[in-house]
Amino acid sequence: MTASPTVLSALADGVLVLTLNRPEKLNSFNEDMHLALRAGIRRAHDDSDVRAVLLTGSGRGFCAGQDLGDRDPRKGGPAPDLGHTLETFYNPTLRLIRSLEKPVVCAVNGVAAGAGANIAFACDIVLAAKSARFIQAFAKIGLVPDAGGTWQLARILGEPRAKALALTAEPLMAEKAADWGLIWKAVDDADLMAEAEALARSLAAGPTLGLGLTKRLIQQAATTTLDQQLDTERDAQQQAGRSADYAEGVTAFLEKRPARFSGQ
Ligand code: T3D
């Protein structure tokens, strides 16, 4: 008997849906799931048929971070080198999500804890079921937030809220996460997947070259000056202005018809 895939992958209408699939462990990461998720995001980089990604979880949780069963100190042996595991597993995936010049929608269907929460925050547009909660669970087990958590929380929330969440591991409900600007919106549980799929499909049918450039510009704004950003916007706009999608968008506007974008 073959084990179920740890990440389900399906491509339709230009949307690559990646579903974390260890529901009995709240989709916590073992090595296989790390590699499968990374392969999925890599495919999104390499496959021109993929024009947007939708990341979600199966079962009642989104992702509970690292599978702690794989870190059981009672099994003996030396302490694990978690710097090595971050560098080997989490960091490459985070970098692949952020560097993918295609929209990544995240549908947080339930609890998102530890690295699971921070992987969600690394996505471009995050929708969460109203019942979902985000937990910086690291403080409960003596670790520091990883998977970009300290960077995202500090940038988005500022130090007071970032520190309180990280030091207390208090759950943050989806609606408050949306009020605080950590995610795009909280939606009724029953509507989550339909809304996330519709959003991902509409992005995939959009001018994805321009959307990818936009993603890059907004991300790099965190670390540039206005002066540098004006130069980068100029260069990106020059590229966008030469795209088939720009010609199609303007033509469609002038002809009063819906645009048919190709992502080129
Ligand atoms: O190690 C490295 O490489 C470094 C990187 C670290 C990254 C990290 O993410 S560290 C943080 C790891 N995650 C956690 O500390 C969260 C642990 N989980 C929880 O605190 C709770 O499960 C939740 C708050 C997420 C959900 O609580 P609840 O009450 O809704 O569910 P539950 O009953 O605790 O969990 C349901 C099942 O999932 C349960 O299994 P069982 O008893 O039914 O057989 C539970 O053990 C399992 N589960 C949940 N989280 C994990 C897990 N199993 C392994 N690892 C988990 N992280």
Q: In words, what does this structure look like?
A:
- 45% of the residues lie in helices and 16% in strands.
- The chain is of the alpha/beta class.
- It has two domains: 2-204, 2-enoyl-CoA Hydratase, Chain A, domain 1, CATH 3.90.226.10; 208-255, Lyase 2-enoyl-coa Hydratase, Chain  A, domain 2, CATH 1.10.12.
- The strands form two sheets. It has a six-stranded mixed β-sheet, sandwiched between helices. A four-stranded mixed β-sheet has the order 4-6-8-9.
- Helix 1 packs parallel to helix 2, helix 4 (149-157) crosses helix 5 (159-168) and helix 8 runs antiparallel to helix 9.
- The radius of gyration is 19 Å and the shape is globular.
- The model has no long low-confidence stretch (mean pLDDT 97).
- The structure holds ligand T3D.
- Ligand T3D binds at residues 25-26, 28, 64-69, 71, 82, 85-86, 111, 113-115, 135, 137-138, 140-141, 143, 146.
- Residues 25-26, 28, 64-69, 71, 82, 85-86, 111, 113-115, 135, 137-138, 140-141, 143, 146 line the site of ligand T3D.
